[in-house]
Amino acid sequence: MTDKAFSNNTIVTVPFKSYEDGASKNDDLPPPYESPKIDFSSGWKDRWFMIIFWLHALIVLVIGLVLGMPVLNSVYIHASSNLPDANLTDEERNSFDRYLGVLAYALGGATAVGGLTSLATFFLLQLCAGRVIMCTLVIVIVIEITLVVVLFITVHWVACIMPLIVLIITLIFMSCVWKRIPFAEVHLRVGCAALHSHPSVILIALFIFIVQFLWFICWFLMVLGIMHTMNGSMVLVANKDTAVTTDIYGTSAVYATKPMPFNANRYETKRPIYGITQNSISYNTQRKSLYHREPQDNQVLRSIVGFLLLLS
Fold first, then answer.
1. Which end of the chain has fewer CB atoms < 10 Å from its terminal CB, N or C?
2. pLDDT tens across 172-223, in order?
């Protein structure tokens, strides 16, 4: 029976698979989203970001060297000379240059504190990586709210516009990433755990810390130079006002008519000098009433420029 079955001319087609097809199906490859293809080719992926980044870094560096270094040098010379306040004129005493040393020490201290904070944050991430993200967001929001309140109370309500916009953007960002914070915490812990198995990562982090510290120094020089330049324009306005007053008093002192006898001269010279002096006082009062708003406007402008410098 079996021989009869196999003796018939029956064609049996058996599909044979190649080794490559079998190997491709036997090996369970992960889906593409689990093993993404990473492009390790060198070069910038975003050319616009490269242009903006290098342009911003170059502007900060040039302004810091051109405007900031001379101011820092003048502060050093003034501090080393130890000149008493009695030798200073009223213009120098009231000028912003008189307090450049205070500003230099304040910004220098802020640079040092910022660098130490970055270094402490690096080691803090290894101890409690999960809670750092939440603490950072809360601290940023508290600082922005405090800045808005202080500018509204001490400066002007116009100076609160930009910090308020940044605060709103921060709150929107926090609401968008709120559910992803636990996921980021897990990845941050894994990344910090890799530091113990790969000590070379610590060297890279320290190099980035040094670069950040140098950036703080360049930013400090830029702020110092811009504030000094802005104050120079304000001093020029004040000097114009003083020059008009000086000219008026000079005219009153030079104002004279024909030579008179001694007794008549004693009596007559008081009236024109007194009259011109009164006119100069009234004229100066009018100029002060016209320019009394100018320091407030300059203060608001300086606050806005200072906030924009902080964003850099």
1. N
2. 988 888 888 888 888 877 777 777 777 777 788 788 878 887 888 888 888 8
Q: Crossing angle, helix 200-254 and helix 69-81, to 10 degrees?
A: 70
How far is it, in rounded angstroms, from Cα 245 to Cα 218?
41
Q: Quick: pLDDT tens for 152-161.
A: 888 778 878 8
* Token pair for 70: 């001379």
CB 219 within 8 A of CB 312: yes
Residues 6+ apart with CB under 8 A from 98: 88, 92
Q: Three-state SS across the chain? A: CHHHHHHCCCCCCCCCCCHHHHHHHHCCCCCCCCCCCCCCCCCCCCHHHHHHHHHHHHHHHHHHHHHHHHHHHHHHHHHHHCCCHHHCCHHHHHCHHHHHHHHHHHHHHHHHHHHHHHHHHHHHHHHCHHHHHHHHHHHHHHHHHHHHHHHHHHCCHHHHHHHHHHHHHHHHHHHHHHHHHHHHHHHHHHHHHHHHHCCHHHHHHHHHHHHHHHHHHHHHHHHHHHHHHHHHHHHHHHHHHHHHHHHHHHHHHHCCCCCCCHHHHHHHCHHHHHHHHHHHHHHHHHHHHHHCCHHHHHHHHHHHHHHHHHHC
Is there a contact between 125 and 192 (Cβ–Cβ < 8 Å)? yes
Spatial CA neighbour of 70 closest among 274, 222, 268: 222
Compute the distance between CA of residue 216 and CA of residue 109 in angstroms, rounded to an integer.
11
